[in-house]
Structure to design on (259 residues):
């Protein structure tokens, strides 16, 4: 989704075509030498556009958090950084074939699971990626691409999700879905920030755990965070490993409180 959005932006002025292809491959010897414990087979996703390519001076920055060439209001610079983190967490990597004045080709390589692993839950950092406590997560972020990514990450960790880019709609969803047992919200949103949303949600569900995520370098006031009853604060881009660590920590804290 992020690559497609970026390609659309790059081709907005002069037009062009976006091509996506998928194949099963084995890595070249050069690629295998760069990776610890490479898999036997990889899925190779090729995403190419005709958007004029990337300025060679900027190529080394494209995966940096907050870096963007888009106009104000068109992006936060978190998309490729988040994508890069997710692919890395899955044991994969990205290669860029850049053609200035022509277009860009991104090559994504993801290791294929062994056949005997089919039907088992994947693991991150040696832990099974199933959440035994959080069954349905309400995710709120005003950037739809990040909403989709977070939903996929929570799903990978065994959670059902409801998503919205509007804090007011989030309150309605919480009222209509009593089985929501976790709120994950962005901080910087129009009309209502994440702390304000958490306070409003706790008027409906006082016991609702809250994860606050932010791409801003904000020195959150401790009193405001405590008043909003925020359980965890994470910084974008959030990786799968970090999200799992947060969920495991919340589960352990909740279990300790009950005993």
């Amino acid at each position: 989704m992020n690559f497609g959005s970026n390609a659309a932006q790059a081709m907005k002025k002069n037009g062009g075509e976006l091509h996506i292809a998928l194949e099963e491959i084995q890595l070249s010897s050069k690629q295998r030498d760069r990776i610890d414990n490479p898999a036997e087979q990889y899925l190779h996703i090729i995403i190419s556009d005709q958007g004029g390519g990337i300025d060679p001076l900027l190529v080394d920055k494209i995966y940096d958090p907050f870096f963007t060439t888009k106009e104000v209001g068109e992006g936060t610079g978190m998309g490729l950084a988040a994508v890069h983190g997710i692919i890395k967490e899955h044991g994969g990597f990205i290669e860029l074939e850049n053609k200035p004045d022509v277009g860009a080709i991104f090559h994504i390589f993801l290791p294929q699971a062994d056949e005997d692993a089919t039907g088992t839950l994947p693991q991150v950092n040696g832990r099974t990626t199933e959440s035994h406590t959080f069954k349905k997560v309400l995710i709120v972020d005003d950037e739809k691409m990040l909403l989709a990514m977070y939903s996929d990450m929570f799903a990978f960790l065994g959670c059902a999700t409801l998503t919205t880019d509007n804090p007011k709609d989030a309150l309605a969803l919480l009222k209509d879905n009593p089985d929501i047992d976790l709120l994950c919200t962005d901080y910087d949103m129009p009309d209502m920030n994440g702390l304000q949303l958490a306070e409003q949600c706790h008027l409906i569900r006082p016991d609702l755990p809250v994860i606050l995520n932010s791409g801003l370098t904000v020195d959150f006031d401790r009193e405001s965070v405590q008043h909003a009853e925020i359980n965890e604060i994470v910084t974008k881009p959030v990786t799968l490993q970090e999200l799992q660590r947060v969920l495991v920590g919340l589960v352990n804290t909740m279990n300790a409180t009950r005993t």
The longest strand covers residues 103-111. The chain has a mean pLDDT of 83. The chain has eight helices and eleven strands.
